[in-house]
Design goal:
With about 150 residues, the chain is mainly beta. It has one helix and six strands, in the order H-E-E-E-E-E-E. A hairpin with a 3-residue loop joins strand 4 and strand 5.
Length: about 150
């Protein structure tokens, strides 16, 4: 592939953003398209975490939210201040990170705790098509606790 040199003014603008930054001719549509893995559950889990980390790359203060999350492998509320929590999810919760695979997709799910704005316990579920590292992400609130903090 022959690469041509373009000056920023010669590049089309990315209209998804207010300032319309220039987009080189051969640029990927998203940085996530550059992620490659070996198809293992660990590679999909790594991609799931990496996409959140890269989304905040270079962010400070109000631009940060993922950095406030802590991974959970057990109920962080059990035994103390339990009466201050409203559970949105009924039933047993499997706290362990999990990868499930069928013939078409891999689903990565894990729970986190954050104290940003209000204390919350969240379940993150990312569904990847086999061979792709561009997931469909879903976050649900398992429980909401007392007020948290702001940056």
């Amino acid at each position: 592939m022959a690469w041509s040199t373009l000056f920023p003014a010669e590049c089309p603008s990315d209209e998804r953003y207010v300032l319309g930054p220039p987009v080189p001719k051969h640029a990927l549509k998203s940085w996530i398209d550059a992620i490659e893995g070996d198809g293992s559950s660990l590679s999909y889990l790594s991609a799931s975490i990496l996409l959140r980390e890269l989304a905040e790359f270079g962010a400070i203060w109000h631009g940060c939210s993922w950095s406030s999350h802590q991974f959970l492998d057990a109920n962080p509320v059990a035994g103390h201040a339990a009466d201050q929590w409203q559970w949105q999810h009924q039933g047993r919760i499997d706290w362990r990170p999990r990868a499930t695979q069928n013939k078409n997709s891999v689903t990565i799910s894990f729970c986190t705790f954050t104290g940003l704005i209000c204390e919350q316990i969240l379940r993150h579920s990312d569904v990847f098509s086999i061979g792709s590292y561009r997931p469909t992400c879903k976050v649900i609130s398992l429980a909401i606790g007392p007020r948290g903090y702001v940056h």
